[in-house]
Amino acid sequence: MGLRPRARSGGEINRLGPRGTPTGLRLGPRGTPTGLRLGPRGTPTGLRLGPRGTPTGLRLGPRGTPTGLRLGPRGTPTGLRLGLWILCFSWFCFTAHAQMKIPPETVQFWANILSVQLRETTTRYSGANILQKKLKDVESIIKIVDIDGRDQVRDFAEDMERMLGSKMKSVKRLAESAEDADLYHDFNKTLEFDYYNSMLVNTADEDGNFIELGGEFPLEKNKHFNNLPVNTQQSDVQVPTNVYNKDAYILNGIYWSEALNDVFMNNFQKDPTLTWQYFGSSSGFFRIYPGIKWTPDSNGVAAFDCRNRNWYIQAATSPKDIIIVVDISGSMKGLKMTIAKHTINTILDTLGENDFVNVIAYTDYVRYVEPCFKGTLVQADLDNREHFKVLVDELHVKGEGKVAKAMKESFKILNEAATKGQGSLCNQAIMLITDGAMEDFKDVFEEFNWPDRRVRLFTYLIGREMTFADNTKWIACNNKGYYTHISTLADVQENVMEYLHVLSRPMVINHNHDIIWTEAYMDTVLPNTKELFATKAQSLLLMTTVAMPVFSKKKETLSHGILLGVVGSDIPLLEVMKLAPRYRLGPHGYAFLITNNGYILAHPDLRPLYKEGKTLKPKPNYNSVDLAEVEWEDIDEILRTAMVKGEMGTLSLNVRASVDKAKRPLFLTNDYFYTTINDTPFSFGMVLTRGHGQLMFMGTVSVEEGLHDLTSPDLSISNEWTYCETDIDPHHRKYSQLQAVIRYLQGKEPDLECDEVLLQQTLFDAVVTAPLESYWQAIMLNASGMEMGVETAFLGTRSGLIRLTRYTGIETRVAKKFLTPADKDNLFTVDHFPLWYRLAMENPPGRFIYYIPVEDKDNRDKTGVSKYVIATTAVTVSSGGKMAMAGAIGVQMSLEMLEKRLWTIAFQPADTDCTDVEGVCPLSCQSTDVNCFLVDSNGFIIVSKERSEVGRFFGEVDGSVMAALIKSGMYKKVSLYDYQGMCRSGHSHSSSARPLLSPFYGLAAVIKWFFSHMLMFLLEFNFCGLWHSDYVVDAKAGYHTSHKAKRTDALQPCDTEYPGFMLDNSIKETNSLLKCGRCQKMFVVQAVPDSNLVLMVVQADCDCSRQYSSITLEPKEVKYNASVKCNRMKSQKVRRRPKSCHAYHPKENAKDCGGASEISLSVALFLASLATSLALRRWT
């Protein structure tokens, strides 16, 4: 499936002899044909060239022929001078090619000199030999140990199990307290009660007095809560704008839930690693601890409704199979269809990855909205739900509605799924969305659902008409469902939520407190989301929630199965993954978590964000990325299957990895170790890279000796690693990791919990690397010996320790960001080792590699002013016949320094002795006749005469030479895949030709838009944008559930293939001639010894761009035909079902099946919402 360069017409590589000349051509000592002498300009002696490159005295006519030369009818010179002209032009053309013979021995000579000079510079200024010698001296006191992956993965999983278990205990205490508080509270419909409304707290009116429900609420920034201002002594309450904040049910619920305040604080004291704790009420309010100031959206409203959240829905119900049946007959036109679509989308939003779904539309025949899903259920993951929304948006009304066929089809699907063991194997329901049922379809239910009534029916009567309401209600009430009437868009949310309460009845009556864990999600409600996007590793921005339902224990309502709400707590996955320390995984090792459905919770290759313009946004499918889409080398999905089943084991795979923004490929052998985390639906995996990744060396030094060197000003340790746990005791949160380590070792903070193994290794590394501090200082003191352009020397060890010295001041330094806290790529972070460390590990120890960091396409510096070069190499330690990687050391240089070196070396003065040179002599890279490049082992240009080309892939600059190097095998292409790509769709789902049908279409569309929006404006009371949700936390970004989203040319999830290139180190040199139309291009490529560089000298005056297109690293979308795409979407991979299912209880009161004549916004609710929005707009 790899991408291969296409053959180019007219482009071919001539066959060269052993001296780089065309076979059959003999050259003299200067590289010219025998008998032909060249002058100082490389032209035959006696031949003078004019300004157009032609021999003087030779004038060309308009057709490119010498003037005075008459052509016959076939284009040949007439007369007896034909032979003379042929001889003349053959000789002229031949001499033009011969003058561009580039001597390979000259290029080789330059490469050797450059190698020596680079080696001397990097070795001297880095101190690599000093460090390697010091490591040699301590080999007798160290021990190299093999990492036992099986034991390590088990230890990590047990630590995670203990951590997650403590969170579950906290949630259980909240649930018990909430149920007791409700049990002893008597409902008071006249209750008046002031509470802290999180939207209104600390809000004053014009007179400086706090507004109602907006009293003084002390807030203080807290590092544990992402530096948000919080109140750890009090919770507060958020009420959605579409819920009346003084409704009797709201006030009573808020009143008795005040009892949770003490439990929140006690939980936090028992487990200081807890983050947000909360209670989401079934009536709509949301109590959160610690208390915060809620930030409204741009319309001044609080669109967040806890009942829409996945943690609430999963905790409130068991897994379910849902068939949505929607009426699209002619009677559903206009606003009815708009409401119906919104109802479908809202139902879809209540589903999760443990649920299964399909959507059927009906008129006088049954139509699957996705024909691919005919007769089956598909997992309700994010991809499928959003796919359904797109298709539902395109539904159009027509014909007569005949619901019986659709009902029968729905029952068949559900019965077949249950028979075959497919779907959720738990709750089953049909959602009928229609403007009326003309009959009760008793015969259908007798055939498919009675007497067991295993499938519940929920009916949604759309529109203001009530003509067929009785039949619609009868269908629901006689099939253990619920009937609702939806007359406006504003009614949709509350009415859809009713089905969740019905499905929760068996669980509530049984009083089963099932603990649920959600898939990974990104909580963009919090006000500092953008800062988190910019500063944290993408794969660790996510969190999971542990939640538990809260039931009414009052005896009088037991058969009704009343759900009071859901309690929960967030667990940042960053904190979970810290329990698998980086230093025990190695430079290319990593840990990851997946769910029971095979979706990723945490993985270093998970990229949940994408960039649109300058804005980072969550991808639409960011939390439904399957393990197989990241570990794509596991073609048979052996790893995924075993982990989903909850097994423990190992697997080895040869993989193609990549670093430096996925532009530099690596071939690795990974050993995978995996196990399950008990009492959760999660499985944990760990990777150790074969070889150096599975070896660690241990050294011992005294605390006193280590402390002395640990306090050196040039030393730092990773502040994202956990050397000591500073988050348990609030008093410790003010310390950096280095400060905490030092205070612990000094005995000033004995209560700190520290990683003793990591501390011992850090102390040892500090002592071993200490001589570098004085060595670097000595170089700096010898000012006369300092070379301009060497800016920073640095080293790093596996313990996360970094030493560095700055040879130049910040004012003159080119790489101002390098190794600063903002330079995440080059530091030890929670999810990766520095780039320079990882690259050094995959190259022979002692051999420096050179590279310029790959720049983002949007931030590329075309001037080259800010570009710099990094040189790095690995250092090793040996003991007991084993060799382990001790760390990496290197220097950072300015680009200008390397350029000066190369241009000085690659220059032959005019008095050069050219006696034994075969080809152009003297030769210089400064000449306009040739282009010279210094290119690294991945094909990126490090030095070029054109600064704008530096850092770019060489194939983009010269596709002809790169194609020849790939063909010769000097560079090998590596095909890589990205199943998390984002591609521009370039089209809309609707017909792009439609505007051409009528010149008045545009005007009609505008008029239609105006009146439809005006109508909905009046029907919804939507004066303040009540129903818009700009920051719904799940992946609704880009897919608005109420209104049509603009999808033209939008970025959509896609699969892509992209190339990477690697130098074959066994090929040291190559040269060739490329035939490009009327000219031939010669190039010579020579490897620079003891480095990862090659020196290229290329003829400059032969343009091959017509014959060879550029070779880029741009990803190409992998296109799938319709059948493949269909199979991928509906395929049901191996998954582990949740252990519990609550679908039936004999005491359930099925008569409570709805029937309110109309459920809509009350005048009080409307006025309250309007007043709240106006107040917020005025005072915020």
Description:
By secondary structure, the chain is an alpha+beta fold. Strands 8, 9, 10, 11, 12, 13 and 14 form a 7-stranded mixed beta sheet that branches. A 6-stranded antiparallel beta sheet has the order 1-38-39-40-34-35, with helices on both faces. Strands 5-7-6-17-16-15 form a 6-stranded antiparallel beta sheet. A hairpin with a 2-residue loop joins strand 38 (1069-1076) and strand 39. Helix 4 runs antiparallel to helix 6 (260-270).
Mean pLDDT: 84
Shape: globular
| Count of alpha and pi helical runs | 28
The percent of residues in helical segments reads 25-40%
| Strand runs, count | 41
Radius of gyration, rounded? 36 Å
N- and C-termini, Cα separation: 57 Å
Strand content: 15-25%
Contiguous low-pLDDT stretches (5 residues minimum) are 1-43, 45-54, 56-60, 68-80, 84-99, 987-1006, 1015-1048, 1156-1180
Taking the sheet with the most strands, its summary is: 7 strands, mixed
Protein structure class? alpha+beta
List keywords for this structure.
globular, alpha+beta, disordered C terminus, six-stranded antiparallel β-sheet, 1180 residues, disordered N terminus, single chain
Q: How are the SSEs ordered, and which strands pair?
A:
Blueprint: E1 11-13, H1 82-98, H2 104-126, H3 128-137, E2 142-146, H4 149-183, E3 220-222, E4 228-230, E5 236-238, H5 248-256, H6 260-270, E6 277-281, E7 286-289, H7 310-316, E8 320-327, H8 335-349, E9 356-362, E10 366-368, E11 378-379, H9 382-392, H10 403-420, E12 427-434, H11 442-448, E13 455-462, H12 469-477, E14 482-486, H13 492-510, E15 516-517, H14 529-535, E16 543-551, E17 563-572, H15 573-577, E18 590-594, E19 600-602, E20 609-612, E21 615-618, H16 627-630, H17 638-644, E22 649-659, E23 664-676, E24 683-689, E25 695-699, H18 703-710, E26 715-717, E27 724-725, H19 737-745, E28 753-754, H20 756-769, H21 771-781, E29 790-797, E30 801-806, H22 835-841, E31 849-851, E32 868-879, E33 882-894, H23 895-905, E34 930-935, E35 941-944, H24 954-957, H25 959-968, E36 971-984, H26 1001-1020, E37 1051-1063, E38 1069-1076, E39 1079-1087, E40 1094-1099, E41 1116-1117, H27 1122-1130, H28 1163-1179
Parallel strand pairs: 8-9, 8-12, 12-13, 13-14
Antiparallel strand pairs: 1-38, 2-25, 3-4, 5-7, 6-7, 6-17, 9-10, 9-11, 15-16, 16-17, 18-19, 18-24, 20-21, 22-23, 23-24, 26-30, 27-28, 29-30, 29-33, 31-32, 32-33, 34-35, 34-40, 36-37, 37-41, 38-39, 39-40
Helix pairs in contact: 4-6, 8-9, 8-13, 18-20
